[in-house]
Amino acid sequence: MIIKQQLKKISIADIARELHVSKTTVSFILNGRAEEKRIGREVVERVQKFIEEVGYRPNPLAQSLRTGKSNIIALMVEDISNPFFASIARLIEDRAYKNGYKIIYCSTDNDPAKTRDLISMFRERHVDGYIIAPPEGIEDEISALMKAKMPVVLFDRHLNDVKTDLVEIDNMFSTYNATKHLTEQGFKKIAYVTFSSNQSQMLARLDGYNKALEESGYKPFVKEIAFNQNDDLIIGPITAFLKKNKNLDAVFFGTNHVGTCGLQVITDLGIQVPSDLAVVSFDDYNVFKMHSPPVTAISQPIEAIADNVITVLLNRLNTSSQHISSQSIVLKTDLHIRGSSLRAAQ
Amino acid sequence: MIIKQQLKKISIADIARELHVSKTTVSFILNGRAEEKRIGREVVERVQKFIEEVGYRPNPLAQSLRTGKSNIIALMVEDISNPFFASIARLIEDRAYKNGYKIIYCSTDNDPAKTRDLISMFRERHVDGYIIAPPEGIEDEISALMKAKMPVVLFDRHLNDVKTDLVEIDNMFSTYNATKHLTEQGFKKIAYVTFSSNQSQMLARLDGYNKALEESGYKPFVKEIAFNQNDDLIIGPITAFLKKNKNLDAVFFGTNHVGTCGLQVITDLGIQVPSDLAVVSFDDYNVFKMHSPPVTAISQPIEAIADNVITVLLNRLNTSSQHISSQSIVLKTDLHIRGSSLRAAQ
DNA sequence: ATGAAAGCGCTAACAG
DNA sequence: CTGTTAGCGCTTTCAT
User: Fold this and answer.
1) Where is the HTH lacI-type domain (chains A, B) (predicted)?
2) Which CATH class for the A4-58 domain?
3) A89 contacts B120? CB cut-off 8 A
C-alpha cells in the first residue's frame, strides 16, 4: 500500500533522511560500490530493502548532468522508413536495450547540413555513442567526435580520410559477382541503374559492375538518378531510360529503393522478365522474392551487420578497448539467384 | 578564431562573468523574457552578440533537470521495422523536429510488460509527450500518464475505458467494404486470415468482415494466427490453412504482415490468383501493387494519420488546449481494387 | 532593471 | 566505514 502511495518522486536525499544515513552512502550502494567502500552489510541491506519497497529509481537526468553519461546511443540512418535501415534499427534497438542503452534515432536524408544539426543536438544531450550511416560531407564532424573521444561506429559506407570503427559489406565483390552471373547467363547489354552518389558503397558497387563488364568486354550502360525519397522522381527517370534503351537485355538495380521502383516501371511498361529483360537488384526484399518471376538479388546479412555494429560500440563504451585504434569489419553478401536472371528459364 | 577555440563547453556563468552581468540577466535574455523583465536594450544586444560569437547553446540536460521538460516525445509502435509504422515514424519525426521536438522511439512487440518498462523509463527521462500504438493490458499505465497530465496520443487502435486523444481509421467499415467488394464479384467462400488479437482495430476489422458476410448469408471462415514477428511462424499456419481448405474462393488478409506472408504462401503453393483464389489485404504496400496480378488492398492514409497525431500532440504541448478533454479522430481508408479480386478479370 | 542565491537530483573528492 | 560538501548548468524567487 505504502508502495503505491509513493507517487511523489522520491530522491536520494529522502532515502538518506529516512534511514539516517548519508546521501553518499546511499549513492555508493546504488552504484554497487558498497563493497569497495566497505559499507556495513547491515546498512546495505536496509538501504536496498527500502529502495525496493518504495520503488526508488534514480533520476537519469541528474545522473547525466553530473556524470556526462546518458546511456543513450544515437542511431543515424539515411531513412528510417527504408526497410533495410528499419530492420537494422530494430535489431540494434533490441540489443541496446538489453545492455541498458536506449536508442535515439533519426533520418539524415543524406543531407550533410541536417546531419550536422542532428549531431550537434546529440552532443548537447550527451549521448554516449554514435552509430551512423554517414552522408558525404560530414568528415569534419565525425573527426570532431572522435577527437572528443566519442565512440563512433559507421556502417553501410565509410568516409575517406576518417578512420573510425566500421561495419561494411563487400560491395564491390557483390556487384562484380552478380554482374558475372548475368554475363555467364549470356546477357550482354547490361545496364546499371543507381542513385547518383559518391558514397563509398555506391562507388564500390559501380566499380564491381564496371570491372565485371570490362572483363567480358561488354559496354557499360550506367543510368544515375538523383537521390530522392519520392518514388515518382525515381520512376520517371527509369521509365525514360528503359524506353530509350530498348536494346538492353538485362538491368541491374543498385539499391533496394531503385530496385522496387524499377520493378514497378517494368511491370507498368509490360516488359517481360527475363525474356525481354533480365533483372538483378541489390538488397533482398519481400518484393523481390514474391515477384513473378522472383528477382535475383544480393542479400545483405542484416543480423550480422546489426550484431557487429552494436558489439563494436558496446566494447568501446566499456572502455576496455581504449587501446584499439579502430577496426573495420567487412561482411559477405549472398547472391540469391532466381528466375529473373536465368536465360535457361525461358 | 576565438570562436573555434571555444571548444570547452561554455556556460551561462561564463557569459555572465565575461560580460559583467548576472546569470539571471543572461537567462532571461536567453528565454526571450528581456522585454518582460525590462532589461536594457544595450545589455540585451551585448549578450546576444556574445552568445552568437561563441556559439553558446544552453545545456538541455540542465534545463530538463530544472524545468522538468525535455523537448522529447516518445513514440511507441508495435514494430519499427513494419513498413506501416516505419513510414508513420518517419513523418512524425520530421514534423516533430521542425517544431523543436526530438523523437525517441521504440518497438513494443505488443508486449505489455515491455511496454510498461519503456513507459517508466520515459517517465524518468521526463519526456514531454507520448505517441503510442498501445498493446492491450497497459490501460493502467496510460491512465497514470493522463493523471500526471502527460499528453498522450494513441493511434492505430484504442483502449477501452481509457479516454485519450486518439487517431484511428475506420477499420470496421474498411473490411466491411472490402468484403462487400468480394461478394459483389461473386465470391462466396471468403476466408479471413488475421493475427489473433483483442486489439480494438483487429476486432473492428473482424467485425466488418463478419457483418458483410452475414448480410450476404455466407459462412465466415476465420483463421487466427498467433502474433509474431517471425515470418516462418506466420507462413506455416497459413500454408496449413490453405492446404486444408481447398474449397475457398477468396482470402482476406487482415494486416500487411499477414498479407505479405500469405502472398508468399500462395506463390509457393502455386495457387492461381484470382482464378483459384481471390486475394484482398489490409494495408497497401509495394508488394501488393507490384504483385502479378496486383493485389486489391485497403490503403491507410499514412500522411493524414501522422499529421493528425503530431498536430494533436503539439496542441497539447502548447498547453493552449488544456480545457479540451480529449478528441478522437477517425480517418477514412481507400480500397484500391486491383486484379487479384476481380472475377471478370479471368 | 538587475543580482544573489536556492535548488533540481546526483556523484565524488575529501574529511573524519 | 560514513558524512559533509561542492558542484554539474540552468531557472526563478526574492530582494535591491
Assistant:
1) 10-67
2) mainly alpha
3) no
pLDDT in tens, B35-86: 888 888 888 888 889 888 888 888 888 888 888 888 889 999 999 999 999 9
Q: Kindly indicate whether the domain formed by B69-169+303-331 is annotated with CATH number 3.40.50.2300.
A: yes
Which residues of B lie inside 8 Å of A (Cβ-Cβ)? 57, 59-62, 64-65, 70, 79-81, 83, 86-87, 89-90, 93-94, 97, 102-107, 120-121, 124-126, 260, 263-264, 267, 286-287, 289-292
- Domain edges within chain A: 4-58, 69-169+303-331, 171-300+335-345
What DSSP letter does each residue of A146-166 carry, written as one string?
HHTT--EEEESS--TT---EE
- Confirm if A93 and A37 have CB atoms less than 8 A apart: no
Residues in Cβ contact with B79 at an 8 Å cutoff, skipping those fewer than 6 apart: A90, B85, B107, B108, B109, B229
- Fold agreement between A69-169+303-331 and A171-300+335-345: yes
Edge-to-edge strand list for the sheet holding B165-169: B102-107, B72-77, B129-132, B152-155, B165-169, B328-331
The answer to whether the C-beta of B33 is closer than 7 A to strand C is no
CATH code for the domain defined by A171-300+335-345? 3.40.50.2300
Q: Considering only CB atoms, which chain A residues are within 8 Å of B286?
A: 260, 264, 286-287
The alpha carbon of residue A162 and the mean position of all alpha carbons in its chain are separated, in whole angstroms, by 18
CA–CA separation, B133 vs B130, rounded Å? Answer: 10
CB contact under 8 A, A121 and B102: yes
Interval B166-198: pLDDT, tens: 999 999 999 999 999 999 999 999 999 999 999
CA of B37 to C1' of C9 (A): 29
* Nearest by Cα to A88 from A317, A256, A314, A308: A308
| d(C-alpha A337, C-alpha B154), whole Å | 43
All three cell numbers of A96, joined, read 541496446
Contact indicator for B213, B187 with CB cutoff of 8 Å = no
